[in-house]
Amino acid sequence: MTPRYPGAYWMSAGKDQGPNNGPTTVSFHGCITNAGIEGVRSYVEQENTLHGYVAKDGTAAQYKDFDRIAYGMLDGNERGGVTWETWDGLNVGTATYDDVNRGADARPEGTWTDEECERIADIIAWDAIVLGIPARTVTSTRDRAHGMHGHGIPSRATSGEGPNIYVGPDRWSKDNKKPCPGNKRIAQWPGIIRRSQVIEAAVRAGRCGFLPQGPVDLRAALSRTAGGVQVDAADWMRFFVAAMA
Ligand SMILES: [Zn+2]
């Protein structure tokens, strides 16, 4: 069996949809939800659209094994695609995609919390070491690598959604203009990849382990890669800003 990410609570959900021929390519999304891991489990039970979920405080759950199909990546679903959804705090009833109605309740306006960033970086580092999926950004939708939903969305830029990050050749949504995971989260991505590489190197060197289950304790999480020095959460924010520059 493909190993399960140990920092997530295993919460089997939905029906088995068969093998996905992977795992190969891991994608991260924004979920349009304010729910925690239990609420999202109910959704997966019905829709079978994701493998795992990262909540606002960094708590993670895995609902499906990474070598089984989830329906979050269209062409990628049977090409080894793994779908991780993340909390974005949006209201399912009022969140909008459209340009005119942009505001606090629009998907492109939000950011991943620090705890979500650290959890996502930890997942990527674990993927690299345990699943052999490198901690780098996709340059093709068929790469053995990591990306965001937008890497498989061809028309974000032409629709005014924001930067074009489409790498092709596959489409990861029937909606060519889908803004997922949002422009501000897309801007956070390079820092998350950098952080995942730091964690990967530290784990490989035996200096630390992966994050435990439950909410991310930022101070403890950062201190594991700081060579015995206590690190404040504020330092982690500076690390991110520097990594994104
Ligand atoms: Zn998405």
Would you kindly provide a written description of the structure presented here, covering whatever features stand out?
This is N-acetylmuramoyl-L-alanine amidase. Residues 143-164 are annotated as: Disordered. The protein is α/β, with parallel strands linked by helices and 245 residues long. The protein has one domain (8-244): 3-Layer(aba) Sandwich (Lysozyme-like), CATH 3.40.80. The chain contains five helices and six strands. It has helices at residues 37-47, 114-131, 183-204, 218-223, 233-244, and strands at residues 8-10, 25-30, 52-54, 60-62, 81-86, 145-148. Strands 1-4-3-5-2-6 form a six-stranded mixed β-sheet, sandwiched between helices. A hairpin with a 5-residue loop joins strand 3 and strand 4 (60-62). Helix 3 packs across helix 5. It is globular. The chain starts with 7 loop residues before the first strand and ends with a helix. The mean pLDDT is 90.
Q: Which structural class best describes the helix and strand composition?
A: alpha/beta
The Cα radius of gyration reads 17 Å
Output the strand order for the largest sheet: 1-4-3-5-2-6
Classified in CATH, the superfamily is Peptidoglycan recognition protein-like
Distance between the termini: 40 Å
CATH topology: Lysozyme-like
The hetero molecules present are: zinc ion
* DSSP, total strands: 6
Shape: globular
Poorly predicted residue ranges: none
Average predicted local confidence, pLDDT: 90
Q: How is the main sheet built?
A: 6 strands, mixed
What CATH architecture label applies? Answer: 3-Layer(aba) Sandwich
- Assigned CATH class: Alpha Beta
Number of helices: 5
β-strand amount: 5-15%
Q: Could you estimate the helical fraction of the residues in percent? A: 25-40%
Total domain count = 1
Order of helices and strands: EEHEEEHEHHH
